[in-house]
Amino acid sequence: MGATSLVAGVVLLVTSLAPMFVQRSDSALVVAPLAAPASIDPEPSTAGVPTPSIPARQPAVVAPRPEGPIDGVSFVLRIPVIGYSAMVRQGVGANVLANGPGHYPTTPWPGSPGNVGIAAHNVYWLSFNRLKVGDQVQLVTQHGVFLFQITRSWVTDPSDRTVLVPTSDDRLTLTTCYPLWAGAYATKRLIFSAREIGGVA
Question: What pTM was computed for the model?
Answer without folding.
Answer: 0.65
